[in-house]
Design goal:
Distance between the termini: 45 Å
Structural class: mainly alpha
Order of helices and strands: HHHH
Helix content: 40-55%
Strand content: under 5%
Length: 105
C-alpha cells in the first residue's frame, strides 16, 4: 500500500510543531546568559515553543528577547501564524544546531 502525501496535510502543523518542541527540549538546560537575547535562532525556537505551549499557533512576543522578524530564520512576525513545512523546519533546526555548536562548544 502506498502513502498519500495529501493525507498528512492537516497533521503537518502538529508534527512540525512537535519536532521543534522536541528539539528545544533536548537542549532545555542551556544557559540563558550564553544563549543571549538578540533574536538568534535559539531565541526564535524559544519563542515558537512558548507560543505552542500556550496553545497558540501565532508567534507570541517575549519581552526578554530582541526579536526582529527580518533577521529571523522563519521571518514570522509577532502575532502572525507560524507557517510550517518540512523545508522551513529543517532550516530552523539547522540554524538552531549551528548556534548551539557556536555558543556551547
Amino acid at each position: 500500500a502506498g502513502s498519500d502525501p495529501e493525507a498528512l496535510g492537516p497533521f503537518e502543523p502538529i508534527v512540525m510543531g512537535n519536532m521543534v518542541l522536541a528539539l528545544d527540549a533536548l537542549f532545555g538546560h542551556r544557559a540563558r546568559g550564553k544563549e543571549g537575547k538578540d533574536g538568534n535562532p535559539l531565541n526564535e525556537v524559544r519563542m515558537i515553543c512558548g507560543s505552542l505551549m500556550k496553545g497558540d499557533t501565532r508567534l507570541l512576543p517575549d519581552s526578554t528577547i530582541k526579536y526582529d522578524p527580518a533577521k529571523s530564520i522563519l521571518g514570522t512576525k509577532i502575532g502572525e501564524h507560524i507557517r510550517w513545512s518540512p523545508d522551513r523546519v529543517g532550516k530552523l533546526c539547522h540554524a538552531f544546531l549551528d548556534e548551539i555548536e557556536r555558543k556551547y562548544s
